[in-house]
Write a structure and sequence with these properties.
- The complex is a heterodimer of chains A (683) and B (338).
- Chain A is 30% helix and 25% strand.
- In chain A, the strands form eight sheets. A seven-stranded mixed β-sheet of chain A has the order 19-22-23-27-26-25-24, sandwiched between helices. In chain A, strands 4-7-10-11-12 form a five-stranded mixed β-sheet.
- In chain A, α5 runs antiparallel to α8 and α9 crosses α11.
- The radius of gyration of chain A is 40 Å and the shape is elongated.
- Chain A starts with a strand and ends with a strand.
- Chain B has 338 residues and is α+β, with helices and mostly antiparallel strands.
- Chain B has two domains: 89 residues; 227 residues, Bira Bifunctional Protein, Domain 2 (BirA Bifunctional Protein, domain 2, 2-Layer Sandwich), CATH 3.30.930.10.
- Chain B is 41% helix and 20% strand.
- Chain B has twelve helices and ten strands.
- A seven-stranded mixed β-sheet of chain B has the order 1-5-6-10-9-8-7, with helices on both faces. In chain B, strands 2-4-3 form a three-stranded antiparallel β-sheet.
- In chain B, α1 packs parallel to α4, α2 runs antiparallel to α4 and α5 crosses α10.
- The chains are: A alpha+beta (683), B alpha+beta (338).
- Chains A and B meet through β2, α6, α9, α11 and α12 of A and α5, β1, β2, β3 and β5 of B.
Chain lengths: 683, 338
């Protein structure tokens, strides 16, 4: 709401500077969001909250200023000189639930012309286009008094009468903006004898518009049901100065004043004779009576306001306080329909008293705090990945469904079962994510386009899956992407596949979480967007928790990215489900170990983890650890074969092994490996 | 015979002197003192010396042996030390080559700030709760005193899944979930992602909020001020000016917005604070009795406060970031600054 300081001063005499007035309004709950200097005036941009329609006018704001500063509000004297011929508009309200009051006057013999500058300039200043004297005056009074008015060309109203009723079977209406509106049967309309002439509280009709040839007018000042006006405005996607005020609640008791103010101005400026008043008011307004305990003020605010001061503040706001013995009743003015119960009254007192006068205290509390296990674990996950070189990414939860095609997911893939947004900002953002992978690939694309050569990102976010319930399931996913490229590590890196970098980060995470029972299995594994030879399922504590692998070249092409890219996606809840409870100390070994190396030649198909496991299982009580320290193919190794070298550490709990004991075990293992893997000792 | 031994000594001394490295010294040692060495041979043949000469002969022999050993040792040490020096000289590395280290990744700036905020409230005895991001209209609006067709809904542009299901527009519905499940006293914070149909330099369709609330029998607005002042002073520094001004939220009453002295200009006025010297960072208030009624609490028995803030906004102020969209691009050059 824009408000001119000069105009405000017509209602309340204040000596504060525009800055000080802005500060005063802001600190009483009407935030001044901007100020605009004009030639000899200052325009305030006031953010009026939805519960304060009474402040959507110059008079309303002036009233507020007078209350806050304790000044007198200048009430303009409004008088109408009615013509001698007894004429009164005929008004009928068919649905008093939707139109609570309808008042009108007829003015005959107006001369349509441009409005005087003092009117039209103020309108322009406050963002309303000037049209002609009659229309401008209705808008001027709207700004001044806050009540929407509408003027009809009386001679175009068939039968010269007004009926207020719903649209029913009428579904088209040509409104003032020269646009044919489609109506619903509930839309409340203003009718003449035979046709609709306005959408109640929203916009008038083009046919009955006040234009250059208009001589007689019917001036409407009514009060419509806020919900009805809001629904109509939302449905038509049409918000007007009028609908904005009606949907927040108009001042049903003040509307005659607005009508008379406008009628008076019209007669004065455009000429014409004013008829008698028609006022159809089926159920007159009853002010709300709020039982009030002054002690509650302090119980809510934590201050000690003297009841006399509280009473004075309320009086300044136009509230009445009735006393019956010890019991008090507060009656708010009719334009304050936001005040319904005692808490609303307390807020008013606090507002005027000043929030700054409320002291700061700390509540006494019972101790109960703890970081929930889950959040602690998530911090551990984040820190572990961070130490492995991965930075945390946060992407929007939206998904472009075409990304799933780029991932080459099959039509049956559960990740295609999307939850869609009815009103997305862009069509590309119409679904909620079922996987975090597309966003990470998009991050790769962006970073590549900005000249980055390597990238390590992870994201911990929810995905959204159909659950069969009203609300989707929102499981947490942990995803990571590794773009292998020249960076500070290149200096030291060998020629290994980048898969092992990402896998290493994951193994580091397992170690951090003390998950020892995990494995990587590629048998029968297939994820459409991963390279079939460089991908696998990740298992922890015997359950599949996700996938890891190199990006499939076809998917890379679809996402318009190139380079060595590796991806990881895990079900974070499954990952964190089986975290061992705590650490138990194991006594240090008493006897030394004996370490022997073993280099064997096996087919390249053989998985090193299977060989390690076989070695360990050959003498589970005697072997402390098996570590793979070399993989070799090339000279001296036949084609289709590879050499694996393991360091095997033997240790007994009760004695030092002799060489001959270890020789015996070592020989046995070699034989077993020959049987199960056709392994040969490398010569 | 004694002369023989003395000449052996001279010979040994001569050869040791001529040795060029520790290897030749070792050869001299073998030649004289080895198993088949000259001096060793003499010692072995001691028994063949007539009795009357034997003690004298033996004494000289031992003296010579000790003397040769001493010279040998000295010479050996000399060469070893020299050779070590040489090998150290030959074995140099370029200490200016960068070390082998996996560079640490970076925490997202909003997560960093969120952690700080969470830690402050944990230290004040709050616990953490979470709620769904896809939420029933009932929890997001109605239970928070925003019935359908209420103009207050215009304050938040909403993404709809269907008529009854929305992407939550704030973290406040967590209040309702927690209050429905638990009885007071409650002290809870609820961080999470929220969504609004809006996109420009200062708005993204998804952002993060943290909600906090406290419910008990004697909670006052004064407590709200106290708790938020502690929070603001921990996050923005103990000298940060704070002001509370009246505002409107359907689910709190009285409602307040909390401003801090502009962290960019220090309160003198700049573009960020629109020349007011103040920046709004929080919405708060006393929980509206209507909300208590919705969750089945007696509004006469309990009072409580609630507050909510945008994590991105606070992060922007803390680090001087001027475009909210940077948070969701995941540009490496941006992330690596935190």
């Amino acid at each position: 709401m824009k408000a001119s300081i000069n105009w405000l001063k017509e209602f309340v005499e204040f000596s504060l500077t525009p800055q000080e007035i802005a500060e005063t309004l802001t600190m009483s709950g009407l935030e001044v969001e901007g100020m605009e200097e004009t030639e000899n005036d200052t325009l305030l941009e006031v953010n009026v909250p939805p519960n304060r329609p009474d402040c959507l006018s110059i008079n309303g704001l002036a009233r507020e200023i007078s209350a806050v500063l304790g000044l007198t509000l200048k009430q303009s004297r409004i008088s109408v000189s009615e013509s001698e011929t007894v004429e009164r508009p005929a008004v009928e309200i068919k649905d008093p639930g939707l139109c609570m009051r309808y008042s009108a006057r007829i003015i005959r013999g107006v001369r349509i012309a441009p409005a005087p500058q003092r009117i039209s300039q103020r309108l322009e200043l406050h963002g309303i286009r000037a049209k002609n004297n009659v229309v401008d005056i209705t808008n001027y009074v709207l700004l001044e008094m806050g009540h929407p008015l509408h003027a009809f060309d009386l001679d175009k109203l068939s039968g010269g009468r007004i009926v207020v009723k719903q649209a029913g079977s009428t579904d088209k209406f040509l409104s003032l903006d020269n646009d044919e509106k489609t109506l619903s049967s509930e839309t409340l309309l203003i009718w003449d004898k035979e046709k609709p002439v306005a959408i109640a509280g929203v916009m008038g009709g083009l046919d009955t518009e006040v234009a250059g040839d208009t001589v007689n007018i019917l001036l409407e000042s009514a009060c419509f049901n806020p919900v009805s006006v809001r629904r109509t405005s939302k449905r038509l996607n049409l918000s007007t100065e009028s609908s904005y005020r009606f949907e927040r609640g108009a001042d049903i008791e003040g509307l005659i004043k607005a009508l008379d103010r406008a009628a008076h101005l019209i007669a004065e400026i455009a000429g014409g004779k004013i008829s008698a008043l028609a006022d159809n008011y089926p159920a007159p307004f009853k002010p709300v009576q709020i039982p009030f305990k002054f002690s509650k003020i302090n119980a809510v605010l934590g201050i000690d306001i003297n009841p006399q001061i509280a009473e004075e503040l309320l009086t300044r706001l136009g509230f009445k306080i009735k006393r019956e013995g010890d019991r008090h009743t507060v009656v708010p003015p009719c334009y304050r329909q936001d005040i319904r119960r005692d808490i609303d009254v307390i807020e008013e007192i606090a507002r005027l008293y000043g929030y700054d006068k409320i002291p700061a205290s700390l509540p006494s509390i019972r101790i109960q705090s703890e970081l929930p296990a889950m959040r602690n674990l998530l911090r551990t996950v984040t820190e572990s990945l961070r130490r492995s070189g991965y930075s945390e990414a946060i992407n929007f939860s939206f998904l472009n469904p075409s990304a799933l095609d780029k991932l080459m997911l099959s039509p049956e893939d559960a990740r295609r079962n999307l939850i869609k947004i009815k009103n997305p900002l862009k069509n590309e953002d119409e679904a909620l994510r079922t996987t975090l992978i597309p966003a990470l690939l998009e991050n790769v694309r962006l970073n590549l386009s900005r000249g980055e050569k390597s990238l390590r990102l992870f994201e911990l976010s929810k995905v959204f899956l159909h659950s069969g319930q009203k609300l989707p399931a929102e499981p947490l996913r942990l995803s990571a992407v590794y773009l292998k490229g020249a960076d500070s590590l290149s200096l030291w890196q060998g020629k290994h596949d980048g898969f092992y970098d990402l896998k290493g980060a994951l193994e580091g995470l397992f170690a951090e979480l003390r998950i020892e029972d995990y494995s990587f299995a590629s048998e029968g594994f297939r994820e459409p967007y991963l390279h079939p030879g460089k991908s696998c399922v990740v298992r922890a504590c015997k359950i599949d928790i996700g996938t890891i692998g190199a990006l499939h070249p076809a998917a890379a092409q679809a996402f318009d990215i190139s380079g060595e890219i590796y991806l990881l996606e895990l079900d974070a809840e499954k990952l964190l489900l089986n975290i061992p409870a705590g650490v138990t100390y194991r006594p240090l070994p008493k006897y030394p170990y004996v370490e022997r190396d073993m280099a064997i030649v096996v087919s390249t198909e053989i998985k090193s983890a299977d060989v390690s496991a076989a070695i360990l299982n050959a003498e589970p009580d005697m072997i402390e650890s098996v570590s793979l320290f070399d993989i070799y193919t090339g000279a001296h190794i036949p084609g289709g074969k590879k050499s694996l070298a393991f360091a095997i550490r033997y240790r007994a709990g009760d004695r030092t092994f002799t060489d001959s004991e270890v020789d015996l075990m070592h020989t046995k293992i070699i034989k077993q490996l020959a049987d199960s893997f056709s392994a040969e000792l490398r010569s | 015979m004694i002369e023989d031994i003395l000449s052996i000594k001279d010979l040994a001394r001569e050869e040791i002197k001529k040795a060029k490295d520790s290897k030749t010294v070792q050869a001299v040692r073998v030649k004289f003192l080895g198993k088949k060495g000259i001096l060793t041979g003499k010692l072995k043949s001691l028994s063949s010396i007539p009795n009357e000469h034997r003690p004298e002969y033996g004494r000289v022999l031992n003296e010579v042996k000790t003397e040769i050993e001493a010279i040998l040792k000295k010479q050996e040490e000399f060469f070893k030390s020299a050779e070590l020096q040489n090998s150290l000289k030959a074995n140099r590395i370029d200490v200016t080559v960068p070390g082998y280290c996996i560079p640490c990744g970076h925490r997202h700036p909003t997560s960093r700030v969120l952690d700080e905020i969470v830690d402050v409230f944990l230290s004040l005895g709050f616990r953490i709760e979470e709620g769904p991001e896809v939420e029933l209209d009932y929890y997001n609006f109605e239970a928070l005193n925003m019935p359908k067709d209420h103009p207050a809904r215009d304050m938040q542009d909403t993404f709809y899944i269907n008529e009854d299901v929305v992407l939550r527009t704030h973290t406040s519905p967590v209040q309702v979930h927690v209050m429905k499940k638990n009885r007071p006293p409650l002290r809870v914070i609820a961080p999470g992602k929220v969504y609004r149909c809006d996109a420009d330099v200062s708005h993204t369709p998804m952002f993060q909020q943290i909600e906090g609330f406290m419910v008990d029998s004697h909670i006052t607005m004064s407590d709200l001020k106290g708790v938020l002042e502690v929070f603001i002073h921990q996050i923005f520094g103990p000298k940060t000016p704070v002001r509370f001004r009246p505002s409107f939220f359907p689910f709190t009453e009285p409602s307040a917005e909390i401003d801090i002295g502009c962290v960019i200009c220090g309160g003198t006025g700049c573009r960020v604070c629109k020349n007011t010297g103040w920046i709004e960072i929080l919405g708060a208030g006393m929980i509206n009795p209507r909300v208590f009624e919705m969750v089945g609490y007696d509004p006469e028995a309990y009072t409580g406060f609630a507050f909510g803030m945008g994590i991105e906004r606070i992060t922007m102020l803390k680090y001087g970031i001027d475009d909210i969209r940077l948070f969701f691009e995941n540009d490496k050059r941006f992330l690596e600054q935190f």
